Amino acid sequence: MNGGVGRFEGFGRHEGQQGGAGDGGSGGRDGGETVPPRIPPPRVSVEDSGLPLPEPAPAPLVLEHGVLKALLGAWALAACSVRETAAVEEHLGTCGSCANEALRLREAVGLLHAEDSLDLDPALRTRVLQGCLDRRAPRIPVPDWAAPYDAETARLDALLQDIGDAEWHAPARLRWFEDDRPVSRRTTVAGVIAHLLSVDGLVAVALGLDDPLPRAADAPTPTARTEAYRRASRFPPSRGVRGPWREQSHALVRTASFTSEGSGSGKLSVSYGDFELPLRDAMLDRAFECWIHAEDIAEAVDYPYEPPAPRHLHRMIDLAARVLPTALAERRRAGLAAPPRQTRHLVPAGSPGRSLRLEIEGLGGGEWLIPLDSPAAVGSADHAVAHVALDGVEFCRLAAGRVSPEEAAAGQEGDREAIRDVLCAAASLSRM
């Protein structure tokens, strides 16, 4: 311990002087001079420091019993001021009746909860239907290839249920690509539904249902039918168009279900004027158009809208990938794409040829091999000369004419000419 004291030698003394701890400042053992004790200077007053003085504690509130009892509700909701809270809590320690009332109010507040959104969960309909089907299977089930159309028309109908009368006349645009350039036409929300009603009529006619355009024999294409509907209407479409579209969509799902149960749904085809699609692909095409145009409507009325379920989105992407070789061949005939590197006789039907590997990421993703030189050829990984990576929703918007080929590709590798031709062919799938 003595060694420890020696380390602080000179503390409280003048240099070179010694002093005992209890000598009262007198000389040391050797009779040295008297050393005055070191006294610390006085502290600076807070008034002289320039700092703000502390606020005095507020005087407690003195309130009558009736006032304190009236404050119990606000106290239970934590809405009292600090002084009111202190006064109420002090009172509760001395008043049994108010303490019991405060306990009941606090329990009641515990039952309250934050206000929930009134918007229905988009997946609610699917969960309810699935629960019903698990308990009792339908006698005539909706076929898998018609389920995307059933789901997308139901989602769009829910959106239309939420919008007001004025929003049916909100401006909207029908957009697509034509001759490698974007094209659009101005319309309204009601006009978009009229367009869906007109083109869905092509499937209705193929199924033997009534055509929503009775005098549309000279309008076999989607564009012609949309124009025919517009010319036949004395007034611009309004909210009233929802009823016929809704009834037709229900009839299409019911009839497609019975047709699937019957003898040959695979034999039915739907004519689009300049091409045909099997019924199952036509229903998938109409589901795709319903989703894309629902997004147009949602954008027009500032309504949140989600992509389709992944399993439905995958089917839509698969349809687009399957028709890409035919679209690419049509562009070559029109002089809009580079000629094939291999002639037809070098690539027999069913034989592998040059291919592009289309990788779709995210929702509904997968991988497709697109034959480049002939629609009759088979895509082959061994003959892949290019690779394109795209997000699933972005690829669908490319096929719908909502984004350009230059904007769509997230990753590209290989033959640049083949990549450009396939992306432009995807954009050419879009139509009014």
From TrEMBL:
<keyword id="KW-0805">Transcription regulation</keyword>
<feature type="region of interest" description="Disordered">
    <location>
        <begin position="1"/>
        <end position="52"/>
    </location>
</feature>
<feature type="region of interest" description="Disordered">
    <location>
        <begin position="217"/>
        <end position="243"/>
    </location>
</feature>
<keyword id="KW-0804">Transcription</keyword>
<feature type="compositionally biased region" description="Low complexity">
    <location>
        <begin position="217"/>
        <end position="226"/>
    </location>
</feature>
<dbReference type="Pfam" id="PF13490">
    <property type="entry name" value="zf-HC2"/>
</dbReference>
<feature type="domain" description="Putative zinc-finger">
    <location>
        <begin position="70"/>
        <end position="99"/>
    </location>
</feature>
<protein>
    <submittedName>
        <fullName>MDMPI N domain containing protein</fullName>
    </submittedName>
</protein>
<dbReference type="InterPro" id="IPR041916">
    <property type="entry name" value="Anti_sigma_zinc_sf"/>
</dbReference>
<dbReference type="InterPro" id="IPR034660">
    <property type="entry name" value="DinB/YfiT-like"/>
</dbReference>
<dbReference type="InterPro" id="IPR027383">
    <property type="entry name" value="Znf_put"/>
</dbReference>
<feature type="compositionally biased region" description="Gly residues">
    <location>
        <begin position="17"/>
        <end position="29"/>
    </location>
</feature>
